[in-house]
Amino acid sequence: MDPLLEILFRPVDGGVTAPRGFRAGAVAAGLKKGGRADVAVLAAETAVPAAAVFTTNLVAAAPVVVSREHIAAGRCRAVAVNAGNANACTGAQGLVDARAMASATARALGCAPGEVIVSSTGVIGVPLPVALVTSGIEAAATALSADGGSSAAEAIMTTDTFAKEIAVTLELGGRTYTVGGMAKGSGMIQPNMATMLAFVTTDAPLTPEACDAVLRAAVDRTFNRISIDSDTSTNDMCLLMASGAAGGEPIGASGPAFEAIAAAVHHVCGELARLIVRDGEGASKFIEVVVRGAESEADATRAAFAIANSPLFKTAVFGGDANWGRVAMAVGKSGARVDPDRLEIVFAGIPTCVNGTALLFDEQAAAAALAQRDIVVLVDLHLGAGTSTVWTCDLTYDYVRINGDYRS
Amino acid sequence: MDPLLEILFRPVDGGVTAPRGFRAGAVAAGLKKGGRADVAVLAAETAVPAAAVFTTNLVAAAPVVVSREHIAAGRCRAVAVNAGNANACTGAQGLVDARAMASATARALGCAPGEVIVSSTGVIGVPLPVALVTSGIEAAATALSADGGSSAAEAIMTTDTFAKEIAVTLELGGRTYTVGGMAKGSGMIQPNMATMLAFVTTDAPLTPEACDAVLRAAVDRTFNRISIDSDTSTNDMCLLMASGAAGGEPIGASGPAFEAIAAAVHHVCGELARLIVRDGEGASKFIEVVVRGAESEADATRAAFAIANSPLFKTAVFGGDANWGRVAMAVGKSGARVDPDRLEIVFAGIPTCVNGTALLFDEQAAAAALAQRDIVVLVDLHLGAGTSTVWTCDLTYDYVRINGDYRS
């Protein structure tokens, strides 16, 4: 994406309902404690062009299996989401329950079940309390509102400490298009794995093919470039729906209008992805790992993830230690082509290593730089033009506490 | 390895100097604080058949680079080790210093520098205090003793909480052969990456080819099947030296004598590898992950490592939680072929999942099982005959503390 495009985006309120043609509703169906909202429905006026990407985990949750079938048509009327139960490792009954969620939504909206995407997040291996969820869906579908985006963003949270939503507008050929999004990050009702869900809407008249192209390109460099703890959920899902309510000619999978909308979707996905990292379990630091000079983008990504997922690197950042030796170690084990004698590492703005050899640096200045909330670690392999950025957080006592607590 | 062979092994004292034809010496050269021994020399009477495997990290330390050259001849007279400084990311001077270690050892023993393996462990990116190290080598070479194994095992420790050594004998064709070994595990002088070093000796008359075959087979299923925190050091090294001092015909790379010695070396490497895991940084639990029913051994190993390296799994074990959903998640993301509907998981002896679906289990019994120091997690993929075992430890507050502490 051309970064200059970003200056064309104007932030607006409303999240997923900021684009015209979308309404959302949320209710407390009784899955979360304390009467908090836990079921949300996001709906367009008709079945609109849509695309989705799903977890690559082979142990995929039932809603992922069902939604993969439903999105194949390239259109979707609505998505129904519950928090508090992942409906994963639930066998044949799990599939029955996921289909019941789609049917309940379809009945409430007057559409076909195959036009509904379903999504669940929460504890694994516990049967879905499907009666609670379908009652919740009916209530949420009744409560649909053109300013319901924020309440939906809250309903899909588990132990996220804040709701994650964003929307931007852009002017294009005399029209104003809007892209909105919401996401949830790493958290749990009971200690269980992080689950990433993201829903992006636009009123641009994208074709189904354009939706798919836009979404895959954006996810590849945003949600697929973050890591809290290297674990891949059974429930991950990112959905894009394009209502076309802003009007104009259909936008296919190429051309200037496509590029502009793609940039806006990329921007929205990137912001949501970074919000997920900022709210990572136990995180005290937000870390941007930039690898450049790699032989390819794939190599740069490999090296960046090796750093971002190294427990030794993550604990060093937590400890405020510019321990660049651990960065060198991670790059060396990553599988990327590396010439140790060309390695350059700039740790939180402090040059620590050139040509694979230590530089003397002011430890006090390093400690001050590492006291910041946001840390950038830059690695230059000096081998080629491959570049990649990955976002992660530190590994803290709180991460161990949150995930080591007993489920009860 | 045929497990029945293990009953033929008799444990003996003496570690690496238990086999005839080896002497070791250790001194405090001033690299560690508090006057603790930090330089060791292990020597045979002449250059004997030997083999070594080294870290696959492309950012390899200087002693790894030099030792790779020297072991190519298939023979080695001695190994010189220092703890307290890894001589990694030290550029051209690091290579000069590593060669100086070999030369000092060669001078003291009256052999060629190319017959000496050198090895370092400790902080990365700090120039080796080479004068201290070579003086230490000279003193250690003067102090060589046939019962110096234990002092060498202590000298190579960094923050290991106990020295790791073992030796066993076996009777073969009327002769007694001995295999001994020592290793160091995850620790540091100053917070830095774990470094695994292991040295194995035998008085069996292995040829260089047999040494190589024996060592690679043993390491592949012992040291290469452990993980403390998924990070691969720049300095890892495992060396096997065969003095032949027990006499008998040379033992080549096949036949019953080869198999018996190979089993003994496998046993010694396995015990050392498991001792490293027991002494993992911050570890409170020793975890054996067994995956069976995989399509291949490679797939089984992939799945086992995905479990062993999952921070969510490791924190769950720390918290005493039979959170089998995280095991299912890890298997699903591992890259191994998995049919979710066949997945079976037995967590600390408690059946928790069959056919990919939750079993009801007694949470109190599970809590009691997980209170044990040693935990076995068994996964059956029910797809084939591939089996693999990986050993790991839990992820604890102490891991974060040890690695988050500032280096100073």
Write the layout of secondary structure elements.
2 copies of one chain form a homodimer.
Chain A: E1 10-11, E2 22-27, E3 39-54, H1 62-71, E4 75-85, H2 91-109, E5 116-123, H3 130-142, H4 149-155, E6 164-172, E7 175-184, E8 197-202, H5 208-220, E9 226-227, E10 237-242, H6 256-278, E11 286-294, H7 297-308, H8 311-318, H9 324-333, E12 344-347, E13 350-354, E14 357-358, H10 363-370, E15 374-380, E16 386-393, H11 397-404
Parallel strand pairs in A: 4-5, 8-10, 9-16, 11-15
Antiparallel strand pairs in A: 1-6, 2-3, 3-4, 3-10, 6-7, 7-8, 11-16, 12-13, 12-15, 13-14
Helix pairs in contact in A: 1-2, 2-3, 5-6, 7-9
Task: Explain this structure.
Two copies of one chain form a homodimer. With 408 residues, chain A is of the alpha+beta class. Chain A has helices spanning 62-71, 91-109, 130-142, 149-155, 208-220, 256-278, 297-308, 311-318, 324-333, 363-370, 397-404, and strands spanning 10-11, 22-27, 39-54, 75-85, 116-123, 164-172, 175-184, 197-202, 226-227, 237-242, 286-294, 344-347, 350-354, 357-358, 374-380, 386-393. Helices cover 32% and strands 27% of the residues of chain A. In chain A, strands 1, 2, 3, 4, 5, 6, 7, 8 and 10 form a nine-stranded mixed sheet that branches. The first copy, chain A, has a seven-stranded mixed sheet with strand order 9-16-11-15-12-13-14, sandwiched between helices. In chain A, helix 1 packs across helix 2 (91-109) and helix 5 (208-220) crosses helix 6. The interface between A and B is large, with 70 and 70 residues.
